[in-house]
Amino acid sequence: NYWTTDRLNRGYHEWPKQRLTDLKAKVARSKWRLGYHVQTRTGLLNDPNGFSYFNHQWHLFYQAFPFGAVHGLKSWTHLVSDDLVNWKNVHKPMIPDRSNDRNGCYSGSAIPVGDRLFLMYTGNIWDKHHHRQAKQDGAWMDKDNDITKLQRPLINQPPLEVTGNFRDPQIIKHGLYYYAILGAQTEGNRGEIVVYRSQSVDHGWNLFKTMDIGNDNLGYMVECPNLVFIHNHPVIIFCPQGIDRKRLNYQNRYPNAYIAGDSMNWNQMKIINPTKIRLMDYGFDFYATRSFNAPDGRALSISWVGMPGVEYATDSEGWSGALTLVRELDLKDGQLIQRPARENRKLFVHDLKAVNGMEIPKQCYIKWVPNIDRLSQMAITAETSHLYFSIDQKGHRLSIHRQNLSGNEEIRQVRINKDVIHSCALYFDNSEFEVYINGGVRTMTGRFFRNGHVLNLNWTDCNSVTVKQLKPININ
Ligand code: FRU
What we know:
The protein is mainly beta. It has helices at about 5-10, 15-30; strands spanning about 45-55, 55-65, 75-80, 90, 105-115, 115-125, 130-140, 145-150, 160-175, 175-185, 190-200, 205-210, 220-230, 235-240, 255-260, 265, 270, 280, 285-295, 300-305, 320, 325-330, 335-340, 350, 365-370, 375-380, 385-390, 395-405, 410-415, 425-430, 430-435, 440-445, 455-460, 460-470. Beta-D-fructofuranose binds near residues 63, 74, 107, 223 and 308. It is an enzyme of class 3 (hydrolase).
């Protein structure tokens, strides 16, 4: 095996330049590159980090290991955008180069303060007994996108009764205080959301509370918690690993969930009148959502279209991982509504004539209105592979059958009980798809690795089908 512990942890400057050159050449031959979703140039991408607006631009970072499609030593790759659609690599990543983050710059967030952007992230450390330690570190970024790390951690160790699984701080400001919302695992093996507080963003952080989200059964570990506000209602988005499938009916290895509420009691760090816990997405690959309130008040989110511990067909090509489109979040009756951010309309090029059996381009948008008295079906096929969407005869359940180039057919399902499924909008991008059901009341996201080159579209029992060409803009 090429990936020895030594190579997984090798410092960034110790890699020969040739490594990236070789990987780029390999990636260039991939047939699964995306057209309008964020993807890596080489190596692995996982969580989105530091999604923010600063210095008249959108900023987005992601967890990266550029030297191979494995979870090696993590850094933050930095992208900027003027429109949330076209993203440019700044080529000034934040790499692990301190004792405080020596085994990885793990996930975190960013917040503008004065004329700088403050980054808070987890410094991952393996001690000599091979136990995980976590420091919460800080850095300032100036208007030239130069990042200067703080000398000392902001939070040097986990609180009592929390293990070294303590990470992914989200900074959010309210009143006089900054709050850092962190995912944690207790000594008793329970997942928790822990909150620190300070009046200054770069020092003076103290343990404040365990967040009360009305649900104290959050599996064995919470990753990537984010608190956002929609019409003044709090929504906590998080990944409760190992949560009981009777409490949250998820089909993937790990879930990405949310709880909404009426209001936030900041003194108690309590969500008032919380909804039940729900999945954020019902597809195959969706994790580590990062969300924040933009200056215009919108709650924007972006997620990793991937899953920890899952292998992908591109791994052998030296790259893996992609992100969703930026989504705009809304709330209706305590349920999250997700739509592609309106800026994504730019992606639309022109209508294609929708003909059953047609060949579709690798970047396209397909919207269909099912005939809900029948078994309505939509299928994208390529040789022996397919993505097949079917809606049951009562119109309440959508199933996606995915047959990748190798392997068995896998199924994901979503139910809408109080309504029927009246529309599905599919954003297709070569090897990634996002489905928005009933205007974003439910979403299903995943990768699709086909056989062959030609993609065909077939359907039965749809009242209408619209197909539009989308623009490949090649982000990386
Ligand atoms: C989630 C996660 C985070 C961690 C990061 C490391 O996918 O495990 O909890 O900070 O990935 O890359």
